Amino acid sequence: MTKKEFIELYAEKGNLTKKEAEKNINLFLESVEESLVKGDEVTFVGWGKWEVVERAAREVRSPQSKEIIKVPAKKAVKFKVGKLLADKIK
């Protein structure tokens, strides 16, 4: 589902205009982003948790050249699905 499709679904379910729905979704995404940038976790009990994790530096082999390449350490966003959502997906 694209963001545009999600906005349409959200607007329909919430009885909102597409403009209002887009504003709400953008505010939500910006708030999650700000929290993650600060290093906070964002948790919705039963639904899931976003957190920033450190990925260690590592060496990988290039499939084309078979050469070993060093990949530097970096931060990444990890999402762990909550039990209620996981049960609904099954």
Automatic annotation (TrEMBL):
SUPFAM superfamilies found in the cross-reference section: IHF-like DNA-binding proteins
Source taxon at top rank: Bacteria
Taxonomic placement: Bacteria, Fusobacteriati, Fusobacteriota, Fusobacteriia, Fusobacteriales
InterPro entries per record: Hist_DNA-bd, IHF-like_DNA-bd_dom_sf
Organism of origin: Fusobacterium mortiferum
GO cellular component, one term: cytosol
GO BP terms in the entry: chromosome condensation
One matching Pfam family: Bac_DNA_binding
Alphabetical list of Gene3D superfamilies matching this protein: IHF-like DNA-binding proteins (4.10.520.10)
Family listed: Belongs to the bacterial histone-like protein family.
MF (Gene Ontology): DNA binding; structural constituent of chromatin
Name this polypeptide is given: HU family DNA-binding protein
UniProtKB keywords: DNA condensation, DNA-binding
